[in-house]
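Dissemination and training. As part of the outreach component of the grant, students in the summer workshop were shown how a complex can be specified as a set of sequence lines and then modelled as a single object. The example used during the hands-on session is reproduced here so that future cohorts can follow it. Participants entered these lines:
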Amino acid sequence: MTITNRQSTEDVAAGIRRRVFLHTMRNNGGYLSQACSAAETLAVLYNEVLNLGEPTLPKMPLPFAGVPSASNPDAFTGAGYHGPFSPEYDRFIISPAHYALVIYSALIQMGRMGEDALDYFNKDGSSVEMIGAEHSPGMEVTTGSLAQGLSMASGLAWARKRRGDTGKVWVYMSDGEFQEGQTWECLAAMSFHGIDNVRVVVDVNRQQCDGAMSSVLDLGDLPARVVSFGATTRSIDGHDLDALRNATNSAEPGRPLVILANTSPFQGMPFLQRRFPRLHYVRFKSKDEREEMKVAIAEELGLELESI
Amino acid sequence: MVEIVNRPYGKAFEAFAPSRPDVLCLSADLTSSCEVDGFRDRHPDQFLSLGMAEQNMMSFAGGLAMQGFRPFLHTFAVFLYRRPYDQLINSIAYPNRKVRLMGFLPGITTPGGITHQAIEDIAVMRAIPNMTILETGDATEVETVLEVADAIDGPVYVRVLRGEVPRLFSTPFAFNKLRTVSEGNDVLVVTSGVSTEEAMRAAKPLQDRGIGIYHLHASTLKPFDRDTLVSAARGKKGVVTLENHTINGGLGSLVAEILAEEGIGVKLRRLGLDDTFAHGASKPYLMKKYGLDASALVVAIEDLLGRCLDIADTELEGVRLDTVHSAQKAEAL
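and obtained this result:
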């Protein structure tokens, strides 16, 4: 993709946080902590790592065109914002569909979607759904039921390898998905079949809907567990751009690559620490609370108050 | 005596798949039990072993189909929908992927008991949008169902018979077309799967007593050949359905829906598992115990006609004798 005045990856990460914050303020709630933990990983992937073609869908997201069926030729997926399905291009599967607002913000920041695309967010009849559906921008498959994305990506990757495609299959996952048995079934299968064109980036923010994972169902030594399933495993600081760059480039033949990006759910917005451990979806209990958060986080993000 | 065909699916799949490189054979640790062990050995490039991990297999197959492959999943019918139902919905059915779910040992054709007997699969699958449901009733249908399934734009669930299978029909599986087995005037009998052979056992004794049976065999359960059913049901004294499945949500239910929607006021008797689980035992024993056999059909027809037909069990043993001592019997469950 040819981009003039290419942004720095730092700017993309800052832009993702800013857009998710502004949207959360304007709509009295949102998936704010996911932007904090995911901003750098998504920025590195979209701005530097992923080999994607030009978008094939319009800047302004299309309305929902009906569910897929043999009799509905109009149905589409959000994969078009990642470019065409060509053998040389990568695919990018977003497994935690709850990160949708963060993905939409990243697509806008990257110029893959229009500035006003979030006007359609969570609006009746829109494809820009709150939990990403497969017709939502950036979504390529149905992943709202967690832990299916990795398996679908693995089938896709096996098929692409068989076809001789050079493009890779990248998967963005949340650490909560490692509580599902299917994830481990899939890691075993990838290892057994030597599926080495899959690159997985996991947002290890140690948070889930009920709160801290340590209080819900702790995963123990996650890197050791993933290693023991035969994946090339890199456990890194998920906010360190150089560490991310190195890790994404460290795949080994015959093995899937799993990058455990250890992140903070309030990175860039330290004020959010006050909400710990209830961070899954941030909403405001009162006008005062909203105002307090607005002022504090705007300052943390370097935003002018008038712009909010 | 009816011809008995040994392992028709295994031969059919091996004749079907090699010339179609986009067809893949997936298996979940029941390869020989699904008769694809020979295919695995002779065509390893088209075979993918995914182990006892059906949830991953479902989603993985969805990914393969995204890339233009047409995976045929082989395992017991029961393992294709009970454990991995969420994956079936989200990774296959919703995106209308061309994944073919080959379900072996449907209903009480397995002595494996509750864990192995898919007795509500059709009810579950019927409720899934985009899903097509096929059921084989004899060796000819097993031999010819692959091309039918492969031609469908979307997911397909197939109930497959294995081992020693009788040949009842001489014409291939025809998609969404009820087979007319006999054309009598008194009672309409609609059957599917192994129940069809049972109904055929009852044909002669009923004919001998002057009872005209109009017998339809259903091998496509979703969609359904409504027109043929409706024209056959008109003017009959009653309708009986017989299926290797619970009477809730399967063939009996869908016939009831159509008769009601068309305003055909005719009495209906649904035979099959009467809202009960079964248990592990031989097929003939279970068919007798749960009223899925020819004598249960005779009782239902007697009830509809209000007369005793005095048919002895010995009169219902025609068509074929079950091969109780067959080599297939001991095959791995």
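Chain B is about 30% helix and 20% strand. Students were then asked to discuss how this feature might be tested experimentally.
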